[in-house]
Amino acid sequence: MYVPHESHAARRLHATSAPDCWCYNPELRNAAIPKILTFSGQMTTIRLKENEPFEVALRRFKRTIEKNGLLPELRAREFYEKPTAARKRKKAAAEKRHYKRIRSQMLPKKLY
């Protein structure tokens, strides 16, 4: 944090006394932490069985990650998505669900 009229020592003090969080404002420091910075789950691990080949263990690990649903989330967070693009994607998904629900409630076509 640079303040034009502070001495170099004062600036260094600010840098070293900064908290290990993303917010310098003490009122907001304990506010809701963004979800991406929190980790509430347990890390996915597997234990190697005796005389188990690496390929088999890797396959088991990949299967475990797929079951946990981590892969789609990681792919979604791989690149930044603009808020407008996220809204557009969510709206398209909602429309798709809506039309799918309507189609499932319709009577089947007459086959005569």
UniProtKB/TrEMBL annotation:
InterPro entries: Ribosomal_bS21 (IPR001911), Ribosomal_bS21_CS (IPR018278), Ribosomal_bS21_sf (IPR038380). The keyword Ribonucleoprotein applies. GO terms for cellular component: ribonucleoprotein complex; ribosome. The keyword Electron transport does not apply. It holds the Pfam family Ribosomal_S21. One of its GO terms (molecular function) is structural constituent of ribosome. Keywords: Ribonucleoprotein, Ribosomal protein. One of its GO terms (biological process) is translation. NCBIfam families: S21p. HAMAP family: Ribosomal_bS21. Belongs to the bacterial ribosomal protein bS21 family. This is Small ribosomal subunit protein bS21. It comes from Cupriavidus alkaliphilus.
